[in-house]
Amino acid sequence: MPKPTSAYFERLAALAAIDDPAARPTKPVLEAYSATEMATIPVGDADDLTRAVERARAAQPAWAARKPAERAKVLNAFSELVHSRADELMDVAQAETGKARIYAQEEVLDVALTARYYATHGPKMLADRKAAGMIPGATDVRVRYQPKGVVGVISPWNYPLTLAVSDAVAALIAGNAVVIKPDSNTPYCALALAELLYEAGLPRELYAVVPGPGSVVGQAIVEQTDYVMFTGSSATGSTLAQQAGKRLIGFSAELGGKNPLIITADADVDHAVAGAARACFSNSGQLCISIERIYVEKAIADEFSRKFAEFVENMKLDGTYDLAPDMGSLASAAQVETIEAHVADAVAKGATVLAGGRKRADLGPLFYAPTVLTGVTDEMECFRNETFGPLVSIYPVDSVEEAIERANDTEYGLNASVFAGNAAQAQKIAEQLRAGTVNINEGYAAAWGSTAAPMGGMGISGVGRRHGEEGLLKYTEPQTIAAQRFMGLDGMPGVPRDVFLKLTPLAIRTLKYLPGR
User: Fold this and answer.
1) 390: left (phi over 0), alpha (psi -120 to 50) or beta
2) For residues 230 and 181, what is the distance between their CA atoms, to the nearest angstrom?
3) Which pTM value belongs to this model?
4) Are 462 and 255 in contact, with CB atoms under 8 Å apart?
5) Structure confidence by residue, pLDDT tens digits, 352-382
6) Rounded to an integer, what distance in angstroms lies between the CA atom of residue 332 and that of residue 29?
7) 25 in helix, strand or coil?
8) Is 346 helix (H, G, I), strand (E, B) or coil?
9) How far apart are CA 172 and CA 160, in angstroms?
10) What is the set of active-site residues?
11) How far apart are CA 352 and CA 373, in angstroms?
């Protein structure tokens, strides 16, 4: 299956929200497998972002005026288009990121399912609802949800389909417009989805893609939009949160992770081996929720380590546009440099390589073998710092309690995984872990794919949540409308004021006996 054609990239580039793109400087976009130029993209600037926001503001009121069920029709149509155009979407995701096709397929399915979820359930979440009033029978209270206005999305390179649109569809069903700055290395994934949104009937101004550097376009997003959604590093997220705070606008972020996996002595070792491999090396380990630390009870640590290392050594690496490889390349030279540095530092300080630990230049310049270490200690770079690549360390522990303590010994708190001998034990362990999502008998997909449930991080791993009701209502301003009838705190017709005021405290106190009070 060939990589995307130059004609395809030219068609998508024309959708960028950049005026007079032919007159702009361009940036090369590389095919990750070969690290060679496959296309260029016009580089937007702050003025382009300003114009995109202005057009979005002009178009957003009409979109918000449409009933949520009408907006849902667009998202349903988009979901179906994603399914029908899955092959071309997988092609562009592979080309820009180097991921294996199985993980490009995972992205495409996630985009379609998330859009369908919000199209199906969003209208009900957004419906006006009644709330208990101050005085039963005399106070009528309704809560309604108004859109924020223009939502700014700053999306990363590692899952450039999912993270360009999974937050956007929630913002759109809520009645907002969206302006997005995709990562400079993966602009075409966002543009490919924009094309399908437009085909589904979304006015072009409501999802504007502005490629350009984060220091320029990303900064302008924080300065001009009404809400910011960011996915990326904890350090950058902290900076953006401060900037959003100065403007008193909403901010949500999914950030880094140093995610742990716990394996108990009575777990099915073979099942844990296969599950851990996918948990650690999906998307070549370039996944915020992938596993980088494995805590395994000593009774089975040797068996697990041996079988796991053998499994990892036998994984198929390649750069083909088909479903055969288990793992593709890394996305950039910078990612290769990071994992090389972490492995070299660990080995120099006494760690042992059980599998991998080397570049695979025979496959391409950005390939690195999935790597398993043991003997990793606190002074090594990869002990606490996120590698964001195909590297995991195994830590034998004396007990489940030690595993839980060590799993929680981190500033991060994004994702965790548990493989145990029985469901009750796994549930008990999961409840003690400080992580926004915990997966049992699975590394990450069970929680991530459950779009009805909130997903996000604790600690420095994030602010707010995506998915579920929380992932939608954060893009709204709740408005309470309370109507008072025939009596209030200032009196009641026919009752002397002094008598009313004396009886009010007693009446308020007795409200606790009413149902729901």
Assistant:
1) beta
2) 10
3) 0.95
4) yes
5) 999 999 999 999 999 999 999 999 999 999 9
6) 11
7) coil
8) helix
9) 18
10) 254, 288
11) 6
